[in-house]
């Protein structure tokens, strides 16, 4: 202490640089050689303050800086030991020390010792947490450090101190800051390591710094691609006995390899494994170096997954332990620290990986080490998992006490129930021991309970392992198998296994193990309830397994066998067709596997037993392909059983015939056609049947029977044959135009059959076949209909219509569709003879009743309206029917329109309806069939109805509303440059002229009906817009003018002024007409249209569109009508309406454009109107405001200039008032804003002339 006092006294009293340097050096030596207590006493005595004072006072003296910084670094070790006294003595001085060190580095850049001790002091000061943040606030410390390392590259001590400082800085900085440090100094560290390869201190500090960089977020990939791995390995090779170099180097290598397969491959290529193994051999006593080396080896041996995700990609697999890492070395490390997780975990992991790829003679020792690890009380879950993995690969023969090991494994599982990897390895080891040992009965019951719990908690490989354990314990020859099965049933193991199979469908091993477990659980289940429980929870899983693993024979065999066991009980009827389809698929795919074929056939036998609610025609379809090959004995047996047990006639014929196609079966004509008709009920089979020539030959024979022997045609057998032929032809023709065209060759024969018989059943099927043959929108279908008309089909339809009391609803439904099908192909005379017959009209009127289906009612409505417009007889019938008939027609029309508005109804040009007709063969009363029909064209139906019932206001309103909706849809589609959405809209576009005329007729016929007028005006407006878009404005306007629409529209506006929609659409229509045709404007002037237009505007002041359209019409009338119409507008408050509109909508460019046009038109050469405008408002300000609000609107600018000219050019005082409003600037803005508008430029120039002349006067 006397020496310390003397040194402190010198520092206090003697301020010469050499004495100060000597004093600082002495303090450094005393504190370095003394104890922590000695350093604390020196700090308490004020040594730190004296050193800082010396550093500040002698900043230019290198020797003082060197010794002072050395002493400072020694004092800063108080932060390392966290000595309370020493840290208290520092107080707030760490910041002063930091600044002193940085200042010394700045002032003495060429002094290596100053740089060395400054870096050392900075590194020690970083132990104080607050210093890191303060250091980063300095903007130059990193540059000083880089310069020191670069300038003193040959000074090992500087390089060591700098590396140590950078490493500690990285550990305490953020990822972004570390990235900055890494980019700035990594190359300098690499250079230091290369330059001072033999300097162990430099290598240790640099290796530690690189590891800190990677740990704290430096870019691993760039580190690997640079010289990092090579320099690390070279340092470790140069200093094999240096524990710090080896430990820090191993840690750095581990961090580099983490999550980088490229780095792993590079380091293995560079020999990193051998270096790390050498550490395990040389530094066996050092726990730190040993642990670092083992962990680095473990990471270096990690197997990497493929980039594409695979099933169970999360499962743990053995490490790829390098060959140089022998079991003997690993066993020695494990024995060195038998209870340290940092040694046991990586050591056992590496041992597991080595033994997994290469058996070892020391398997028994490996098993002992793994067992010893299981006994460690503090063993981690990872250690226990690795021990389980070692046991799995050593084999049961290496385990000395299997029962004790199983108990240890169970204990480990219970200690860590949430650790999936441990659970997998432990249960895998248990499975291995169970397979090899029969003396584990005492733990099996407890084991199963824990197994079920683990499988519930952990998905993946553990469920596969668990299924194998269950299977092993429940095999018939296993001890206590019945008790085990009973216990698993109580634990609901079947449900657990089924769920595991569903969740792991892509994994064939899981499917195989799951099916095997379920098979074992189903053995000897005499309890019906348990078997039903098993069946309920597993059938779906088995079916999904068959679908997911079609090529895995083992899983297919087990699943089919288990389904075959369940198929004896007719409980899962919904899944039977699916099971049959999968069984047939398995038969075709694995025909060479005799066992699978036998099991699949047995399953199909059992599926066919008992009552089958749905014919299994998919089996028959599949067998068509299977029978082309030589079937095995089991297949023949199955086909025989199928023929005996199936209720499907087609399936029986296929099975009995074997290799012959069903259509060519040798059978009586009636039976053969019945069989073909039954097959044709399946849509999937009809294309194949239509390609069979033998089928058409038999069909021709059946339809020719009546022609060959007309007397015999009245006997039951030929009638049945004809009915069956008609039914078959109808089914073959119901699949669209191509199918109908192919079947149309039988049209004449079919007509002769219908003509020759009065049998209702034959007529039903015959007319259905005719409807399917004749339906269609193509030219070929039209040609077929003309051919049928030539063959007197209309007369046959009339003859088939029976009296009302016959109640032949199904036949009449088909007749109704046939009547609609032919209506456009018959001449008027024949139309009157056939369709005008009393019985046909009675049928049509009867079909309007609500008891009929909508497809019948809508066709009856169309036909009646169509006929009423062409036949006086039907028109008279309408008059006789009165309001009741109108109500029925209106209801049918509304129901038709409501159907197309239903979003769930698919609208198509051609429809397919299902009907139930008398069966075509004995054995069934009725059977379903399909009939083709063209959709009733809505626009055509509406127009026919409007023409047929012109005085029915409700029908006119409904029809106009629908026409408006179609027109708006078509207009929107054309605006979007899209095709017309649907046949209805396209039909309206084809009937635009007639639709417009019908709408005008409705307006004429119902002048005083507000609803009709409103609906008609809205429809007329929509049709006008569509016509303008489709045909052009000239054509559209000409059509309305020719229909005298102008006075009718004007009358509607006058009669219903309080209807805003009518007013808006009516005014818009008149505006379009007036702006396109001068004669329309003249007509409006004659009809004195100003008053109704002004009234509409006054009643709808808050409707901008009404204001816009009204202003536009007023402008046209005032401009074309001259002074007379201007005065008419003035008299009827038109000026007031214009001013009110301009004030009400200052932000509407359309309203302002039309309003300014009206101002200009009214004031042109009319002083009275000008005076009124000036009297009502500041009209000049209104015009200029509009021009200012819409500088880019050409219409506003042009009409604004024109209006100003008309308002002011006759009165100099008005011109002066306009000039005072800065009009010149506004006009110039208009000219600049529209340099290409001839209209704007001319009017603006004219206005400028007016202003100049007015100013001159």
UniProtKB/TrEMBL annotation:
UniProt entry keywords in alphabetical sequence: Repeat
Database matches in SMART domains: ARM
This protein's record includes keyword Repeat: yes
The organism's place on the tree of life at top rank: Eukaryota
PANTHER family: ARMADILLO REPEAT-CONTAINING PROTEIN 6 (PTHR22895)
Protein name: Protein unc-45 homolog B
Source species of the chain: Durusdinium trenchii
């Amino acid at each position: 202490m006397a020496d310390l006092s003397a040194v402190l006294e010198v520092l206090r009293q003697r301020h010469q640089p050499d004495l100060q340097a000597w004093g600082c050096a002495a303090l450094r030596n005393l504190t370095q050689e003394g104890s922590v207590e000695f350093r604390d006493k020196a700090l308490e005595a004020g040594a730190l303050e004296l050193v800082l004072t010396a550093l500040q006072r002698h900043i230019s003296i290198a020797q003082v800086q060197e010794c002072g910084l050395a002493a400072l670094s020694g004092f800063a070790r108080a932060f390392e030991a966290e000595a309370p006294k020493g840290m208290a003595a520092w107080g707030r001085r760490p910041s002063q020390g930091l600044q002193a060190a940085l200042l010394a580095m700045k002032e003495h850049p060429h002094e290596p010792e100053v740089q060395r001790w400054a870096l050392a002091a900075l590194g020690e000061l970083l132990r104080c947490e607050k210093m890191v943040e303060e250091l980063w606030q300095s903007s130059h410390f990193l540059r000083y450090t880089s310069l020191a390392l670069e300038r003193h590259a040959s000074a090992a001590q500087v390089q060591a101190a700098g590396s140590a400082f950078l490493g500690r800085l990285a550990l305490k900085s953020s990822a972004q800051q570390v990235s900055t440090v890494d980019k700035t100094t990594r190359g300098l560290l690499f250079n230091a390591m290369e330059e001072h390869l033999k300097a162990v201190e430099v290598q240790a500090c640099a290796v530690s710094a690189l590891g800190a960089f990677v740990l704290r977020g430096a870019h691993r990939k760039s580190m690997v691609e640079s010289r990092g791995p090579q320099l690390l390995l070279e340092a470790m090779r140069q200093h094999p006995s240096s524990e710090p170099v080896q430990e820090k180097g191993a840690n750095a290598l581990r961090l580099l390899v983490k999550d980088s397969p490229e780095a792993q491959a590079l380091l293995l290529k560079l020999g990193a494994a051998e270096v790390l193994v050498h550490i395990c051999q040389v530094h066996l006593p050092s726990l730190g170096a040993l642990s670092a080396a083992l962990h680095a080896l473990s990471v270096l041996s990690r197997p990497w997954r493929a980039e594409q995700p695979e099933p169970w990609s999360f499962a743990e697999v053995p490490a790829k332990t390098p060959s140089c890492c022998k079991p003997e070395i690993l066993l020695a490390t494990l024995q060195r620290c038998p209870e340290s997780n940092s040694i046991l975990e990586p050591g056992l992991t590496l041992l597991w990986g080595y033994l997994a790829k290469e058996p070892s003679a020391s398997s028994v020792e490996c098993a002992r080490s793994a067992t010893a690890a299981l006994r460690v009380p503090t063993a981690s879950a990872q250690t226990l998992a690795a021990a389980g993995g070692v046991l799995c690969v050593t084999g049961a023969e290496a385990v000395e006490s299997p029962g004790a090991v199983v108990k240890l494994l169970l204990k480990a599982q219970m200690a860590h129930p949430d650790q999936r990897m441990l659970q997998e390895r432990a249960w895998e080891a248990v499975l291995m021991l169970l397979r090899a040992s029969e003396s584990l009965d005492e733990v099996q019951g407890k084991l199963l309970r824990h197994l079920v719990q683990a499988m519930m908690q952990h998905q993946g490989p553990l469920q596969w392992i668990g299924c194998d354990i269950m299977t092993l314990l429940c095999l018939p020859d296993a001890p206590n198998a019945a008790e085990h099965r009973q216990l698993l049933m109580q634990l609901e193991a079947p449900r657990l296994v089924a769920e595991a199979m569903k969740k792991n469908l892509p994994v064939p091993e899981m499917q195989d193990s799951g099916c095997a477990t379920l098979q074992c659980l189903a053995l000897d289940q005499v309890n019906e309830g348990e078997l039903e429980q098993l069946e309920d929870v597993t059938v779906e899983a088995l079916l999904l397994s068959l679908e997911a693993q079609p090529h895995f024979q083992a899983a297919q065999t087990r699943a089919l066998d288990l389904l075959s066991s369940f198929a004896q009980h007719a409980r899962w009827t919904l899944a039977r067709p699916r099971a049959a389809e999968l069984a047939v698929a398995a038969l075709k795919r694995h025909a060479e596997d005799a066992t699978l074929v036998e099991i699949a056939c047995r399953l199909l036998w059992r599926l066919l037993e008992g009552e089958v609610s749905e014919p299994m025609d998919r089996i028959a379809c599949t067998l068509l392909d299977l029978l082309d090959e030589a079937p095995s004995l089991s297949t023949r047996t199955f086909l025989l059983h199928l023929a005996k047990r199936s209720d499907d006639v087609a399936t029986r014929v296929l099975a009995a015939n074997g290799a012959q196609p069903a259509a060519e079966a040798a059978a009586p004509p009636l039976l053969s056609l019945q069989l073909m008709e039954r097959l044709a009920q399946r849509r999937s089979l009809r294309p194949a049947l239509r390609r069979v020539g033998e089928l058409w030959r038999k069909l021709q024979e059946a339809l020719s029977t009546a022609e060959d022997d007309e007397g015999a045609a009245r006997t039951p057998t030929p009638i049945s044959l004809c009915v069956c032929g008609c039914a078959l032809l109808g089914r073959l023709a119901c699949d669209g135009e191509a199918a109908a065209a192919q079947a149309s060759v039988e049209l004449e024969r079919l007509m002769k059959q219908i003509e020759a018989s009065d049998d209702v059943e034959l007529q039903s099927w015959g007319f259905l076949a005719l409807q399917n043959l004749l339906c269609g929108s193509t030219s070929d279908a039209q040609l077929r209909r003309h051919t049928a008309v030539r063959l007197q089909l209309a007369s046959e339809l009339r003859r088939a219509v029976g009296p009302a009391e016959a109640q032949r609803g199904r036949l009449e439904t088909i007749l109704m569709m046939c009547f609609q099908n032919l209506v456009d192909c018959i001449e008027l005379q024949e139309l009157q003879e056939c369709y005008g017959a009393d019985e046909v009209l009675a049928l049509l009127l009867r079909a309007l009743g609500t008891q009929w289906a909508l497809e019948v009612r809508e066709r009856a409505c169309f036909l009646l309206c169509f006929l009423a417009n062409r036949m006086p007889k039907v028109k008279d019938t309408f008059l006789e029917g009165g309001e009741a008939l109108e109500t029925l027609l209106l209801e049918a029309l509304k129901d038709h329109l409501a159907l197309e508005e239903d979003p769930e109804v698919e609208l198509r040009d051609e429809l397919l309806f299902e009907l139930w007709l008398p069966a075509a063969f004995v054995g069934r009363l009725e059977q379903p069939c399909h009939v083709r029909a063209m959709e009733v064209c809505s626009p055509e139906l509406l127009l026919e109805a409007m023409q047929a019932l012109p005085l029915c206001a409700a029908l006119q309103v409904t029809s106009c509303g629908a026409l408006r909706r179609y027109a708006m849809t078509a207009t929107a589609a054309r605006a979007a440059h899209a095709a017309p959405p649907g046949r209805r809209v396209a039909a309206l576009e084809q009937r635009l002229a007639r639709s417009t005329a019908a709408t005008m007729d409705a307006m004429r016929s119902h002048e005083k009906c507000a609803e009709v007028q409103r609906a008609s005006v809205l429809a007329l407006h929509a049709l006008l817009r569509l016509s303008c878009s489709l045909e052009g404005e000239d054509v559209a306007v000409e059509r309305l003018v020719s229909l005298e629409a102008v006075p009718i529209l004007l009358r509607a506006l006058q009669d219903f002024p309080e209807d805003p929609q009518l007013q808006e659409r009516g005014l818009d229509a008149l505006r379009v007409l007036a702006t396109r045709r001068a004669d329309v404007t003249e007509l409006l002037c004659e009809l004195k249209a100003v008053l109704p237009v002004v009234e509409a505007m006054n009643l709808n002041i808050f409707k901008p569109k009404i204001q816009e359209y009204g202003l536009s019409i007023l402008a046209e009338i005032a401009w074309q009508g001259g002074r007379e119409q201007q005065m008419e507008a003035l008299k009827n408050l038109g000026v007031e309406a214009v001013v009110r509109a301009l004030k009400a909508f200052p932000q509407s460019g359309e309203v302002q454009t039309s309003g300014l046009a009206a101002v200009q038109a009214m004031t042109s050469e009319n002083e009275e109107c000008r005076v009124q405008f000036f009297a009502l408002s500041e009209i000049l300000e209104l015009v200029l405001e509009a021009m200012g609000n819409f500088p880019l609107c050409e219409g506003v600018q042009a009409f604004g200039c024109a209006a100003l000219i008309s308002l002011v050019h006759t009165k100099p005082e008005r011109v002066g008032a306009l000039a005072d409003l800065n009009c010149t600037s506004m006009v110039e803005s208009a000219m600049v804003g529209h340099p290409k508008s001839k209209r704007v430029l001319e009017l603006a120039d004219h206005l400028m002339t007016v202003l100049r002349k007015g100013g001159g006067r």
